[in-house]
Amino acid sequence: MKKLSAGLFTKWLDQYRNNVFLKRLSTVLILDILVRASNILLLPVYLKLMAPEEYGIYNYLLSIIQTLSVILNFGLYVAQSKYYSDAQTDERRKTVLFNIFFSVTVLMLMVLVPLYTLNKDEALISFLFSKNGNYQHYRWPILMALITTVYTVILTNFFVISERIKLFRNYNLVRLLVVHAVVLTCLFLFRTDTVKVRLTYTYFAEIAVMLGVFYFYFKEMLPKIDWKLIGNSLKLSLPIMVSAIWAASSNNSDKFFLEKYGTSKDLSSYYLAFSLANLLMMIVQSVQNVWLPKFLKEKDLRKNIAQTNKLMIRIGLGLAGISVLIVLGLVFILKIGVISADYWPTVYILPILLIAQTVNSIATIYGNYFIYMEKTQWSLFTGVITLGVGLLISSYFISSWSVYGAALVYLVIQLTYLALYYLVINTSLKRRLQREPNITG
User: Fold this and answer.
1) pLDDT, tens only, 252-265
2) pLDDT at 434 over 70
3) Residue 26: which pLDDT band, with cuts at 50, 70 and 90?
């Protein structure tokens, strides 16, 4: 029996050593998850330094920043992944990087400059916030956060697709240490207006770290404008951006209506549950960073489908186990008083959101086929339908059941996404396999 166990372990170890994907995953994944999850790991500290109402407002602002930054990168991180992976020469890869960076910068300026100079951003925020009339107080920190987040997405995407694993790991480690050291120090020193303090110094620290490593990104660029490449990139990416608008509208309808119908205390409990459930998406996003380049390079469609199905099953099972641990961990820290008893309602909301994020995670991996088959416009179709579903049920569910209604809305939205993704992608894959039964790319 011992020999059998030793033989199985040795076989598993040999598979790990010979599997480039697993080695890369373990190298990047642990630290990347740690960076993404650091806000959750330090949650008891932040909850001690921020009142529940301030914590709710901060996270609502953060969700707006993250949503708008996805729109403001115009989906061009998708084109960067696709065309960099397809490029056959160093010169072509360098040209891709420059043109993506150039496109993101120009397009973002074309949106933000008139938006802020004409004060149209205030109209947008006043629509999103029914109760917060203090947007001027956060206006410039939000702008700084938007720009920083857009470039962070493009930069980290470059590290992964170029397989600069060591640089990516070091970048994440410095972010982890510097950002939290700066923010926690400032929260200890400045006890008033913790929302603005945390928002401002988080992104000051992010900018400082990002500028320190941008040199490695610029060094790989060839400053040569390729209008055909820019056109193809926008053709591939703009449907992603538009679908991101639909997705943002549907995925945030729970928070939008909760902010209108609920209290600040409702928001703080909901955001605590959402932050904990979001750990699942953080894990999957880290896996996605490593998986996507491998996925796009595998041109044998049958092999690609088999690998993707296996990954989705493993993700589903893994996240189910992690979900149980998250719920038990929350109950434990509430019972011992690490987090205020005011947050007990979070325990009842959390399981619903954990199921929703597990569904969302599987849909994210499956949705890679939109990029693989260069059919990103299909995501517009799914986005419009899901937005309609979200808006249709949000007002009634949330006005009737508050935070519980919001959690149910989010679950229904994710189930709708997965069902539509499966319907559209599976149908297309079957047709492609029938048309080209021996396809190799």
Assistant:
1) 667 777 777 777 77
2) yes
3) low
Structure tokens that stand for 27 in this block: 């190298």
CB 197 within 8 A of CB 49: no
Q: How many CB atoms lie within 10 A of CB 234?
A: 17
The set of residues, in sequence order, having a beta carbon less than 8 Å from that of 83 and lying 6+ positions away, is 96, 100, 229, 232, 233
Task: Pick left, alpha or beta for residue 263 (phi over 0 → left; psi -120 to 50 → alpha; otherwise beta).
Answer: beta
Whether the per-residue pLDDT at 123 is higher than 80: the answer is no
Q: 2, 93, 44, 113: which is closest to 336 by C-alpha?
A: 44
Output the CA–CA distances (angstroms, integers) from residue 335 to 36, 46, 294, 389, 433, in the order listed. 26, 18, 44, 38, 55
Number of neighbours of residue 125 by Cβ within 10 angstroms: 18
Question: Residue holding tokens 């939109």?
Answer: 370
Of all helices (H) and strands (E), which one includes residue 110? helix 90-117
φ/ψ region of 374 (left if φ > 0, alpha if ψ in -120 to 50, else beta) reads left
For residue 389, name the pLDDT band (cuts at 50, 70, 90). confident
pLDDT tens-digit readout, 12-24 = 445 444 555 555 5
pLDDT above 80 (res 201): yes
310 contact partners, CB below 8 Å, separation of at least 6: none
Tokens in use for 279? Answer: 């750990």
Residues 9, 16: Cα–Cα separation, whole Å: 10
What pLDDT, on a 0 to 100 scale, did the predictor assign at position 12?
44
Residue 33 half-sphere exposure toward CB, CA atoms < 13 A: 16
- At 292-307, the pLDDT tens digits run 778 877 888 889 899 9
236: amino acid identity, one letter: L
Residue 8 pLDDT class (50, 70, 90 cuts): very low
Distance between CA atoms of 161 and 172, rounded to whole angstroms? 16
Look at the block and give the residue holding tokens 């949000």: 394
Q: Which amino acid is at 409?
A: V
User: Are 57 and 132 a contacting pair, CB within 8 Å?
Assistant: yes
Whether residue 130 has pLDDT greater than 80: no
Q: Do 414 and 360 touch, CB atoms closer than 8 A?
A: yes
Within a 10 A sphere around the Cβ of 77, how many other Cβ atoms?
23
Phi, psi dihedral angles at 440 (to 5 degrees)? -125, 10
Long-range contacts from 191-194, C-beta under 8 angstroms, 24+ separation: 191/49, 193/137, 194/49, 194/50, 194/51, 194/54, 194/58
CB 29 within 8 A of CB 286: yes
